[in-house]
Design goal:
By secondary structure, the protein is an alpha/beta fold. About 30% of the residues lie in helices and about 25% in strands. The protein has two domains: about 280 residues, Response regulator (Rossmann fold); about 190 residues, no CATH class. The mean pLDDT is about 95.
């Protein structure tokens, strides 16, 4: 493949339109030029997968940029336009290209572009022309618009939830691009949307427990998808759960097939898989039911041993929620729970703890200050146990990494994060972790202030799926708690403005 030149880059966000913190300008990750290569080569990232295949194929790699705003609210126009313009300019400056590979998310909403990544693809297409193949990997929670499909030659979604196949999907996309450039494949796509807000809690694809994994309806469907992909003319097949909280018309579950120049086969395949997904919609909800707050807390208190993981699903750190929901904390205090730990985002309370110092007793209101629509602050008299700068390394399994039964990942998979300053408060046998930034969804966040979750009876996490990569191995029981908030799986208290109706599960269909 000598002489071929392929540009690589990344661009994305998971935008929650119900977030009270929009618009968002601050980015979480920015990698420019050669950083894309140095920070991803040999790592289990989408771009790491791109690099491995392209270099093995003798392709010249042209790095542009990768920018990710994170799981957050609607992206500010100025921030969105700045990085979109820079990515396009870097592609223009690259000169003659033979292809483009992108690491996208698929659920970005910008102030001036409801389909943020689709708009990027449109401008990129106008830049490189119709003949240059553009291919991208998207999160399984991507909202797949007609614009995205029209402007790209191939869109490949993650196949796992929680996500553990980023690297593999990067390799798949790069292999498809190389095959296309060699003239060995001519990808065509067909998309079908379902009138269904993807029930994310029940659309897991894996579990550390093989018996539980066997019972997961979406895991069963994805095994069938793998069988279907055995057809010699089916190049790829993705089921996108979608991200309902973006609240754009395409924030629904969809199926996308890519075939080798056989549009009829793509249509038939999409229809077959869409029917399986639709027929399983009630199973997705039933497999992991939501439990009322008081019932969940009482179950955890009465359990003979822990850890019992209480999942604050409506305050999902990985879904753009503020992470300051106090509903479970209030119930734990009211019911006299002990040996429990609760994470909260509260910069104001962190500042007060920092000022008081370790060993001090402070009276402070925690939580409920960022989003007061669903819950209120809880006033406590607490002892400051630990203070931290909030910079720590995720060494164990985490969402977006890969599945392992070991407690520690290989060093090349470790990831340094910064959640801002942190403090550990103790109130009547309950520990409250407060941080300036959004709380972590892995054990290492808790360990950053000296709490080992495996040694606690009750552990609250703010998540939908992501915590399972880290916590499932230590949990005696995981309970999804029916809390109120901006990522509620039952959509309680959320008013959709743009989703086409009727739609499951909001309406009878």
């Amino acid at each position: 493949m000598g002489g071929l030149r392929v540009a690589i880059g990344g661009f994305g966000a998971e935008s929650n339109s119900f977030s009270i913190e929009s618009p968002v300008s601050e980015t979480r990750d920015v990698e420019l030029g050669q950083e894309l290569i140095s920070k991803n080569m040999g790592r289990r990232t989408v771009i790491g997968g791109f690099l491995e295949v392209l270099y093995e194929s003798g392709v010249e790699v042209i790095p542009t940029l990768r920018v990710f705003w994170g799981a957050t609210g609607v992206i500010a126009k100025e921030s969105y336009e700045r990085y979109k313009r820079e990515l396009i300019e870097r592609v223009e400056e690259a000169g003659k290209l033979d292809g483009v590979l992108l690491d996208l998310h698929g659920a970005m909403v910008a102030e001036n572009a409801p389909d943020g990544e689709g708009t990027l693809l449109k401008e990129l297409r106008e830049t490189v022309g119709e003949e240059i193949p553009i291919m991208a990997v998207l999160d399984i929670h991507g909202n797949i618009t007609d614009l995205k499909v029209e402007m790209a030659d191939a869109l490949l979604g993650y196949k796992t939830n929680p996500h553990i196949d980023l690297y593999e999907r990067g390799k798949d996309a790069a292999k498809l691009l190389v095959s296309t450039l060699k003239g060995q494949a001519k990808p065509v796509m067909h998309l079908k949307r379902l009138p269904m807000l993807g029930p994310n809690l029940g659309m897991s694809t894996w579990s550390y427990n093989p018996e539980e994994e066997e019972k997961l309806p979406f895991a069963r469907i994805m095994r069938k998808v793998k069988e279907i992909e055995g057809h010699p003319k089916i190049l790829d097949l993705s089921v996108f759960i979608g991200f309902p909280y973006s609240d754009i018309p395409e924030s629904v579950t969809s199926v996308l097939a890519i075939t080798d120049d056989d549009l009829d086969l793509a249509r038939r395949t999409v229809d077959e898989v869409a029917e399986m997904v639709w027929n399983s919609r009630h199973e997705f909800i039933e497999v992991r039911p939501l439990i009322p707050v008081d019932e969940a807390v009482e179950t955890a208190i009465k359990a003979p041993e822990g850890p019992i993981i209480l999942v604050d699903v409506a305050d999902n750190s990985g879904g753009g929620a503020p992470c300051d929901n106090t509903v479970i904390l209030e119930a734990l205090l009211r019911k006299g729970a002990e040996d429990a730990v609760v994470p909260l985002r509260d910069p104001e309370a962190v500042a007060k703890a920092m000022s008081a110092g370790v060993g001090s007793t402070i009276e402070v209101e925690v939580g409920g200050k960022i989003d007061g629509r669903f819950y209120k602050p809880v006033k406590v008299k607490a002892r400051v146990k630990t203070l931290s700068d909030g910079v720590y390394t995720i060494r164990g399994p985490y969402h977006g990494g890969y599945r392992t039964k070991g407690a520690v990942l290989p060093k090349e998979a470790w990831r340094k994060v910064n959640v801002g300053k942190m403090a550990l408060l103790e109130v009547d046998g309950i520990e409250i972790i407060i941080s300036e930034g959004r709380v972590g969804m892995e054990q290492d966040y808790y360990k950053a202030v000296g709490v080992d979750p495996s040694q606690r009876k009750i552990v609250v996490v703010k998540s939908h799926q992501a915590h399972r990569a880290s916590f499932e191995n230590i949990a005696k029981q995981i309970i999804e708690v029916d809390t109120p908030g901006s990522t509620s799986p039952s959509y309680r208290g959320l008013t959709f403005k743009n989703i086409p109706r009727p739609v499951f599960p909001l309406d009878p269909i």
